[in-house]
Amino acid sequence: MLEVGTQAPDFSIAAHDGSTVTLSELRGKKVVLWFYPKANTGG
């Protein structure tokens, strides 16, 4: 768990269109991560 005000560690994640997004590319912008189960899965 990060302390309030601590910079988040850099990471990369797959976007919905198959591209890769890296947190450091978005530095200075507001970022929202939205996780949800893929359609038609049991999760």
Please tag this protein with its features.
single chain; mainly beta; two-stranded antiparallel sheet
Describe, in plain words, how this protein is organized in 3D.
This protein is mainly β and 43 residues long. The protein has one domain (12-43). The chain is 0% helix and 14% strand. The chain contains no helices and two strands. It has a two-stranded antiparallel sheet. The mean pLDDT is 85. It comes from Entotheonella factor. This is Alkyl hydroperoxide reductase subunit C/ Thiol specific antioxidant domain-containing protein. One of its GO terms (molecular function) is antioxidant activity.
Task: Describe how the helices and strands are arranged.
Blueprint: E1 12-14, E2 20-22
Antiparallel strand pairs: 1-2
Summarize the structure.
InterPro entries: AhpC/TSA, Thioredoxin-like_sf. The protein is mostly beta strands.
